[in-house]
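Practice problem. Given the sequence and the SMILES for zinc ion, write out the predicted structure.
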Amino acid sequence: MTGKSLVVLVAVHAVLAGAAIGTATAGVEKLYVLDCGQNLGKDQSRWSPGVNEGKPIEFSDNCYLIRHDKGILLWDTGIPDSVAAMPDGMVVANGAITYRRLKTLASQLDQIGVKPSDVTYVAVSHTHGDHVGNVPLFPTSTVLIQTAEYEWAMAGPAKPAFVTTQKIQKLSGDHDVFGDGSVKIISTPGHTPGHQSLLVSLPKTGWLLLSGDAVHFQDNWTHKRVPSMNVNRDQTLASLKRIETLLEERKAQLWINHDKPQTATLKHAPNYYE
Ligand SMILES: [Zn+2]
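Answer key:
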């Protein structure tokens, strides 16, 4: 055996051994669940037509920070940090919803040692105010948004959904964020024209699907209900079907962003999932 082939053989062995015990596999290192506010809805039936009419509902609102060996992705930015200083919260949607924030996104990032300038990508599930409230906190990050969403919410005659100076990367459908299949944006239109969800592979936890607002809470998922404010009912139902197929294929968990009881079962930052 020549010296050179020995070196190659040793290198191959190192890669195989690393892969077998998981140390050399690139990909997601940590996922943090951040508290990005609460939405108090006056009438649940806004999201579940005909069901629980006139009954209030409280939604959780999460942001998710994913540390990958090639960079950091923040999925959604939540309710504006400024709401944390408002004792009565912020009333939106003609009084139908009140936003509250117990702690800021900035303080939670600080607590886990992440500076806004460390965040490579900020991806927004869609452009509603409880998801894009803190995009301007990340002036050096690249924003990942569907072209259809951008044109609907940012480029039309109405005021843009968020003010941005960042580089915007407009997507047309699914997108493999780090190029290795471990963090994939999945096109799930219907709630808004360019709504998207996120499929993540964690080394210990396995596959997760972060819903965005493709579905708002468990009972709506079970009954495949379409909220009244969704822009397209058929697209919504097709997106729910697509999510169901992905969950089966990957044996993935569905994390429903606005489902308060489910969110209460999750570890929050500074704890994390691996
Ligand atoms: Zn929302």
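Check your answer against the key. The first helix runs from residue 3 to 21.
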